[in-house]
Design goal:
Layout: H1 2-8, E1 23-24, H2 29-37, E2 43-48, H3 53-65, E3 73-78, H4 83-93, E4 101-106, E5 109-115, H5 121-124
Parallel strand pairs: 1-3, 2-3
Antiparallel strand pairs: 2-4, 4-5
Length: 128
């Protein structure tokens, strides 16, 4: 089991080991706040399945690359715990659900999304 955890990580949130100052996205009402916040600073939503090894590896890669704290407000969505929020994101922003998935919201509109192996923190810099 320890080998599995070292390769794919655990089901625990990244916590203090992460370079990203994640804000948990757990409530539908937060989507209205995110839309408002995105008029001041772009908002990144990382949709993650805590049971998926690919999602875990993608998250770790993203966190290792991340250096955008002053430029982006990062939100973390645990898909297994908050599927209703994920479904509302897909409907509200017109973006097909993927996992893992990264969505960048600016001025209330999605301006970038990527999934699986196409998720890179450096790509966000082009859209900020």
């Amino acid at each position: 089991m320890n080998l599995f955890k070292s390769i794919f990580g655990s089901n625990e949130p990244e916590g203090n080991n992460s370079k990203v100052n994640w804000r948990p996205l757990t409530d539908l009402a937060q989507l209205n706040e995110i839309i408002q916040e995105s008029t001041q600073k772009p908002v990144a939503i990382f949709k993650h399945s805590t049971r998926c090894g690919i999602s875990r590896m993608t998250l770790k890669q993203f966190e290792n690359e991340y250096d955008l704290d002053d430029l982006v407000a990062p939100y973390f969505l645990d898909l297994l715990e908050n599927r209703d929020v994920s479904n509302e994101i897909a409907q509200r922003f017109g973006i097909e659900h993927q996992s893992p998935q990264l969505i960048l919201i600016k001025n209330g509109e999605p301006i970038y999304d990527a999934s699986h192996g196409d998720i890179y923190a450096d790509d966000l810099k082009r859209y900020i």
